[in-house]
Every structure is written in C-alpha cells, then in structure tokens.
Amino acid sequence: MKPFNLFMFIIFFFTFINVLGAKFTSKICKHDKPYIHFPFKVNSICKHNHTMINFPNYGELGVKAITYDPKKLTLFDPKDCVFEVFLNLDLDRTPFRYYHVVKNYTYWNCSVNLSGSFESILCLSGATHHVYVVESSLDVHESCEVVKTVLIPFAYSSYVSDDSFGLDLSWDSDGVMDFAEERREFGVQSIIGGLSVVILVLVIVGLGCVKVYCWKKSRITEDEWEKLLGDLETL
Q: How confident is the model over 70-95, as a mean pLDDT?
C-alpha cells in the first residue's frame, strides 16, 4: 500500500470510529446487576457506577432493579426526592406506566404548617412554605394553593419514603418497539451525520495533499529551469 493511501485509510478509520463512539456508545456500568439490555441500553448512561435512564423533559433516574417477566423497572431518584419525580415526570411521552395502581393526588403549596394528619414533603418544603400531597377530593385549605394534580401510586408518608419508594414502572411491548424504532431512526441520522464529517475530513486532507503535491511539482519545475539556464550559460 502506498504511503499516501495508507495515510488516508488511517485518517478515515479513526475518524469513523470516533464518530460512531460519540453517537452510539451506550455507557452501561461495568457491574453484574441490574442486567440491562435492549431497548433500555439505547438511552442509558453510567454515572457514579449507577446505570441511569434519561426521560424526555425530565432527566435522569437510576436503575435499581429490572425484571423482564414480569415487566418491572425499579428506579431511584439520585436527588432522593421521589415526590418531586411524581410531580414532574411525564410518562405519556414514554412507553412506560406506573407498575402499581394510580389515583389522583393533588399537590398543595401552603404558607403555614398544617396540623392533624397532614405531612409536609420535606424535600419540597422550606422555611416559609410547606408542600403536601393530598387526595384530590379534599377541599383546598385556605392557606394553600394548588400546584398540580397528578396520577401517582401513593400518597406521601415519611415512614416509607426513600429514594425509590413507588418508582416502579412497567411497559407495553408495542410502545417499547415504537420507542426503539425512534432510536433506530436517530441512529440512521447519526450515521449520515458521521459520514458527512468523515467525507469533510477527507476532502480537507485531500485538498491539503494536492496543494503540497503541486508545490513540490512547482519546486521541481523551478529547479529544472535553473539547471537548463546553467547549461546554456556554460555553452
């Protein structure tokens, strides 16, 4: 193989590998549990030795356990505030649904600490406000305003709340296939984009090589003219 061809092959190979690595590497943690395979790998990364799944319009949740029969995905919240996840996670844009039966609960934001059976959510409350999750059938307290009503599996309880309480999901096979198909379409677009980068690099390298070749040829021509003029002077 000629040196120029070898050089071009090396440039092409490493550029293509880097592009594919940037687009498609699924950074799954290097440990035995939980075992993650398609379709979850396509949207997973590894952070602090935990496999994380990215949810649209929300962000990342960690994978605590997963079974495929029955279909159950147990997640944990790295911020340790499950009821913030319940408040903001939109499963309508995913193939997932809550594993447990859900019902309507309403979030209240109150200016005072309510007494009785009400328990404020510590990770959402502060010195001047207190957040509660109550059954939607209850009348809003006079010192509170409604934040949002959501379908979630459980009401809040400080006795059972942890970083994964209630964060169990299941999924529909057809929905997962649609989800996977979207990721494959993204993959095709990424390949096209990657090849475009490779072609651009090859064009730039090729133009540079042509320029160097032409410069060398021009130097050879000048040397030949000088030699010819020298021979004429000798005559």
A: 92
